[in-house]
Design brief:
The protein is an alpha+beta fold. It has 3 helices and 6 strands, in the order E-H-E-E-E-E-E-H-H. Strands 1-6-5-2 form a 4-stranded mixed sheet. A two-stranded antiparallel ribbon has the order 3-4. The longest helix is centred in the middle third of the chain and has 11 residues. The two termini are about 25 Å apart. The structure holds zinc ion. The site of zinc ion has 7 residues, from helix 2.
């Protein structure tokens, strides 16, 4: 699944409340993505979001399709968050941008940022740092 950043989110659209604009962030399938340094505290805030506010949990895990130089990516992909091992790729994180739009990313976005230098769009970075996670659908 590859969706360009800030295109309309359709993957599990039924889980988004009516009237809410939901946009994709971080649905990467190759290394052709924006790269750069994220602000201090962003990776930690994103990790906590993945740990505490994952939505739309799936069966099975999405793997990392980006390039790993030395050895292939672990499957499923894991990340350490607050000293705990967290499994990524089976759920989404959803944050609310300043304008009210929802920004929906796979939990793998944490791996993309931490390991591949992916730089998500500014509204996503801002919303994660502000801790504005979307209300749970269920
Ligand atoms: Zn990877």
């Amino acid at each position: 699944m590859k969706y360009a950043d800030l295109t309309p989110y359709t993957y599990t659209y039924g889980t988004v409340p009516e009237g809410v604009v939901a946009l994709n962030v971080g649905w990467l399938e190759d290394d052709d993505c924006r790269k750069g340094e994220t602000p201090a505290g962003f990776v930690e805030a994103l990790g906590r979001l993945c740990r505490q506010h994952a939505h739309a949990r799936m069966r099975g895990y999405q793997s990392c399709a980006l390039k790993h130089e030395d050895e292939p990516a672990d499957y499923p992909v894991t990340a350490e968050v607050d000293g705990e091992q967290l499994t990524l790729g089976d759920a989404e994180v959803r944050v609310v941008a300043e304008n009210g739009d929802w920004l929906v990313a796979p939990t793998l976005v944490l791996h993309y940022v931490a390991e591949h230098g992916y730089l998500p769009p500014e509204p996503f970075v801002e919303a994660v740092l502000a801790g504005r996670h979307a209300p749970s659908a269920s």
